[in-house]
Write a structure and sequence with these properties.
Number of helices: 8
Oligomer: single chain
Largest sheet: 8 strands, mixed
Distance between the termini: 6 Å
Length: 279
């Protein structure tokens, strides 16, 4: 996966997160799974309000850069996850420091009931309907010591900000057994992945995201309908058929944030295939 994505990047100085996730979807389609990346074609459509403990009042912020919706055919389970993506252009002096927004970190860590103040279709419990920690996460693309692009994935509990302001330095706290226990994650989720290969394996074994309930399925139905109206991609109908979530075209105002859709099969032989193809 790492080799594939880096081979597709001709100019590493002119990269963004959407380009990287588009390449990731292309790689997943190489016989490992089926995937579609639908970029955000509407500007600033992910804003919500949430009760900020930092401010002591509500704060307007984008909910995340990316939503990952994965249907596992083997288990017949659909999961959803919201990721804040970052691209660190410089090689990190320490593993791993980056610039971020303390309010974004707070939102994704406390996972509160949100307020859809801007009529964008987010259920108020989109982050709080579940006990799964991987409903929210950070994905930091960075350059390794050889200048190649790699990925660190982590739940926000493993990220800390130096100051409680919008533009501040952040660092990843190296995952340890004690940290994992303290986070109290569910048994079938992966809270950190320190490489693209680890992230890929966790994603395709359906260990990232929270299983959706009826209300969240209603939200996903609108996402699918909106993406289909924008792209006419037949993959959307295949995803709908496999997951049993019907497309909803009723709300013409509904706008989706960047979305990675995946149809996977979490079988033992799949992991063997992935590990063989990892490099």
């Amino acid at each position: 996966m790492k080799d594939y994505i880096n081979s597709k990047i001709e100019d590493k100085s002119n990269l963004d997160e959407e380009m990287l996730f588009s390449n990731l979807a292309d790689y997943l389609n190489k016989g490992i799974a089926k995937a579609l990346f639908a970029g955000n074609v509407h500007k600033h459509n992910g804003f919500i309000d949430y009760p900020s403990n930092i401010l002591g009042r509500s704060k307007k912020i984008e909910i995340a850069d990316l939503q990952i919706i994965n249907h596992d055919v083997t288990k017949n389970v659909t999961k959803i996850s919201f990721m804040q993506a970052k691209y660190k252009r410089e090689k990190p002096r320490r593993f791993l420091c980056f610039k971020g927004n303390a309010f974004q970190l707070e939102l994704l860590t406390i996972r509160p009931v949100i307020i859809d103040s801007y009529g964008l279709g987010f259920p108020s419990n989109i982050l709080s309907f579940t006990k799964y920690k991987t409903i929210s996460s950070f994905g930091i693309f960075y350059r390794d010591s050889d200048g190649r692009i790699d990925l660190l994935y982590s739940v926000p509990e493993n990220i800390e900000a130096s100051r409680a302001v919008e533009h501040t330095s952040m660092r990843y706290k190296k995952n340890t057994d004690s940290v994992t226990v303290a986070i109290q994650s569910m048994a079938d989720e992966t809270i950190t992945a320190e490489s693209m290969v680890e992230f890929q394996n966790a994603l395709l074994l359906n260990r990232i995201g929270a299983p959706v309930d009826i209300e969240i399925k209603g939200y996903i139905a609108k996402v699918l309908g909106s993406i289909y109206m924008s792209t006419s991609n037949t993959f959307i109908k295949e995803f709908s058929k496999e997951s049993g979530i019907k497309l909803n075209y009723d709300d013409e105002r509904f706008k989706y944030i960047s979305t990675l859709l995946i149809i996977s099969k979490s079988k033992d032989e799949l992991l063997t295939r992935m590990l063989k193809m990892a490099e």
